[in-house]
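fwd from M.: "can u put these together and see what the complex looks like"

so here's what she sent:
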Amino acid sequence: MRIDIISVLPEMLEGFVNTSILARAQKKGLVEIYLHNLRDYTTDKHRRVDDYPYGGFAGMVIQCQPIDDCIAALQKERNYDEIIFTTPDGEQFDQPMANELSLKKNIIILCGHYKGVDYRIREHLITKEISIGDYVLTGGEIAAAAMSDAIVRLIPGVLSDEQSALSDSFQDNLLAAPVYTRPADYKGWKVPEILLSGHEQKIKEWELAQSLERTKRLRPDLLE
Ligand code: 6GU
């Protein structure tokens, strides 16, 4: 899989894509992630990528030209399955969407910024608009990072223990059960007895019961 991220602040993402799960996946050759600075594509001699909005509204709007040229340059090299725009008014990102996107070969993520991008880009070039929740971020970079992380960790071979992606919270509409490690007694805080019993079947039942209880209590909407 290949992910191309277009942004006016690629520095914000550099550290992220070169550490964490994304760095591991790239080293293993399971994914390629490329950052593109929108400013590198502008024809403006002052490297400006935004301008005032028509209609006298507040804020600045990213112009069509640098985005169109950047996407065209990428498309000249390969076909893209999805050209995603991160925006608070997009479809809400969730685990099923991460699963779906993890099966794609090539995707572009265009990070929204400031007041937005010229709407014609969204009408003519974007194939999918995604939000990561009902709150407003200054830019789409954090959304692009969150999405890339959620997508890449689902690619087979990225996680060392493949089971761990399958037992995630949300993968089966249930929150994960609590986990513990040594020591079994820390300052009198005890690990549940059942987990020390070695009784595999009983432990599985405990895990499911914990998942159900936590989901009912914390996220009843997931069970509807
Ligand atoms: Cl994708 N972008 C911005 N700017 N804010 C957001 C968002 C995206 N998702 C939630 N809030």
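replying to her w this: The mean pLDDT is 95.
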